[in-house]
């Protein structure tokens, strides 16, 4: 059955998964001009992970299509399952893999169960419900009940396979979700932005929605407001950034006290942050200097790491030393980028020696980094390499986290205090357009699959260029703090 508003559009399991993540995303997938979407390195990383997990799981080369199912192939890819939901909506699904198990179906003494691939440790609602949907459609297709599905994932502990039973509870959850899904898709207007804007980082509609959020002064644009706090503010009648900026502190504190002291205590900060964003004017939070260590420093070492979080592997440690001239100016132009590559875990002890030597040779200078990664990484690397605890403490004693100093000392007219957002606010541009951490990770993973030289070298060069820019961006922020100390 088709629904008038949906017309001839094909409703797929992908749209259903989009809806589970964000109702607006499903609506945009179906109705918005796809030119507004952006390519995201996160999606490419996800596909790469799926491919890796499948390769490890497959017992033989999988076969493709309906004839493979009818002949009882062990594993089948590329199947398109068509069926109807309990409320009569036509839906089409493309499970990544169907696996043969013992049993009876309309094809013989075997049947198939669906296989889903999860990323990360947690089994998400999206994993669970898409698997249940495939099981439900597969039942219509092979005319036999499907009792369970499999969820596979490869990570630092190798391949993990989880069996998910299609219980009454999970089926009821699926049918309820499909009912709401159909109702939402039938709406004429775009649903609002998701309350949890963290989800937007991975979404192909990010730019489109960011523009809308900024235009409308959505509360989620205010730094410090996540999904829960946005709902609370709306409940007490504050609908957007301007309204929050104009609210009196006493009023907000008294209203937020009903939701707990952690909300009450942040009332003043929320209003001040909203004002700073509305007026586009930074506000200093302390009469003290934010970076006093740099007043008499003769130079600074900037440090930035690139890593593969799934493999817990920091593959690049990048450094730039910026010297201070006699006249007090910082000679950024003459600074030299000094990368240390840690190509694989086996060479970690050699990389550690180089990193330790580098940091020790700059022990008279402040070492600036953005966020806690570098500090945690050096502590962990030292521990892994059996380094003396006091020695590690000495190495990190002159580390300065620019991100935490900035947050303690300033409110800026930005929706996020990430390196990218703050540096862009200071008009710093990365040399490689749209480069980000996910893109660097993708380059890294791609380079690992290529033969040394040629394309692999090009990818490594791009990573180094990106890391170099991250170091300079860190410096730009530190420099702004010094100039406004
Ligand atoms: S960018 Fe965010 S709000 Fe927009 S569709 Fe994606 S997840 Fe939803």
Structure description:
Helices cover 45% and strands 18% of the residues. With 485 residues, it is an alpha/beta fold. A six-stranded mixed sheet has the order 1-2-5-6-7-8. It has a five-stranded mixed sheet with strand order 12-11-10-13-14, with helices on both faces. Strand 5 (97-105) and strand 6 (108-117) form a beta hairpin. The longest helix is centred in the last third of the chain and has 30 residues, at 454-483. It is globular and about 85 Å long. Iron/sulfur cluster binds next to helix 2 and helix 7.
Q: Give the proportion of residues in helices.
A: 40-55%
CATH architectural grouping of the largest domain: 2-Layer Sandwich
Average pLDDT, all residues: 92
CATH superfamily of the largest domain: Ribonuclease H-like superfamily/Ribonuclease H
Main attributes of the structure:
Lambda Exonuclease, Chain A, DNA polymerase, domain 1, five-stranded mixed sheet, binds iron/sulfur cluster
Short description:
With 485 residues, this protein is α/β, with parallel strands linked by helices. The chain contains 19 helices and 15 strands. It folds into 3 domains: 4-185, Lambda Exonuclease, Chain A, CATH 3.90.320; 217-281, Orthogonal Bundle (DNA polymerase, domain 1); 293-483, Nucleotidyltransferase, domain 5, CATH 3.30.420.10.
């Amino acid at each position: 059955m088709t629904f008038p508003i949906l017309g001839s559009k094909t409703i797929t399991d992908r749209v259903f998964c989009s809806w589970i993540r964000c109702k607006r995303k499903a609506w945009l997938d179906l109705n918005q001009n796809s030119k507004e979407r952006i390519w995201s390195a996160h999606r490419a990383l996800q596909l790469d992970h799926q491919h890796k997990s499948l390769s490890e799981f497959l017992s033989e080369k999988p076969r493709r299509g309906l004839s493979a199912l009818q002949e009882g192939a062990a594993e089948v890819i590329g199947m398109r399952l068509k069926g109807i939901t309990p409320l009569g909506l036509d839906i089409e699904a493309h499970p990544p893999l169907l696996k043969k198990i013992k049993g009876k179906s309309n094809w013989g003494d075997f049947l198939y169960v669906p296989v889903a691939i999860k990323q990360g440790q947690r089994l998400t609602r999206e994993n669970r419900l898409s698997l249940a949907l495939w099981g439900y459609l597969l039942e219509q297709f092979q005319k036999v009940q499907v009792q369970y599905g499999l969820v596979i994932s490869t990570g630092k502990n190798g391949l993990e396979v989880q069996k998910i039973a299609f219980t009454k509870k999970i089926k009821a959850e699926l049918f309820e979700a499909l009912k709401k899904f159909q109702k939402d898709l039938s709406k004429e207007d775009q649903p609002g932005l998701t309350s949890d804007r963290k989800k937007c980082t991975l979404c192909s509609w990010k730019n489109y929605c960011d523009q809308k959020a900024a235009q409308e002064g959505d509360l989620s644009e205010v730094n410090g407001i996540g999904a829960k706090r946005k709902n609370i503010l709306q409940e007490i009648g504050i609908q957007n950034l301007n309204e929050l900026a104009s609210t009196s502190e006493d009023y907000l504190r008294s209203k937020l006290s009903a939701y707990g002291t952690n909300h009450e205590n942040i009332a003043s900060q929320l209003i001040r942050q909203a004002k700073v964003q509305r007026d586009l004017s930074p506000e200093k939070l302390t009469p003290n200097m934010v970076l006093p260590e740099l007043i008499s420093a003769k130079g600074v070492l900037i440090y930035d790491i690139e890593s593969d979080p799934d493999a817990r592997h920091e593959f690049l440690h990048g450094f730039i030393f910026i010297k201070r001239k006699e006249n007090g100016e910082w000679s950024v132009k003459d600074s030299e980028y000094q990368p240390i590559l840690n190509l694989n875990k086996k060479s970690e002890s050699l990389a550690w020696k180089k990193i330790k030597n580098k940091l020790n040779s700059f022990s008279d200078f402040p070492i600036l980094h953005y966020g806690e990664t570098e500090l945690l990484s050096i502590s962990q690397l030292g521990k892994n390499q059996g380094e003396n605890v006091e020695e590690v403490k000495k190495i990190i004693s002159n580390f300065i986290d620019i991100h935490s100093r900035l947050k303690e000392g300033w409110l800026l007219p930005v929706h996020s205090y990430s390196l990218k957002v703050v540096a862009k606010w200071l008009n710093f541009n990365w040399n490689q357009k749209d480069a980000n951490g996910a893109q660097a990770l993708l380059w890294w993973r791609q380079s690992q699959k290529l033969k040394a030289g040629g394309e692999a070298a090009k990818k490594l060069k791009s990573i180094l260029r990106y890391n170099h820019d991250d170091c300079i961006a860190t410096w730009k922020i530190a420099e702004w703090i010094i100039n406004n100390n």
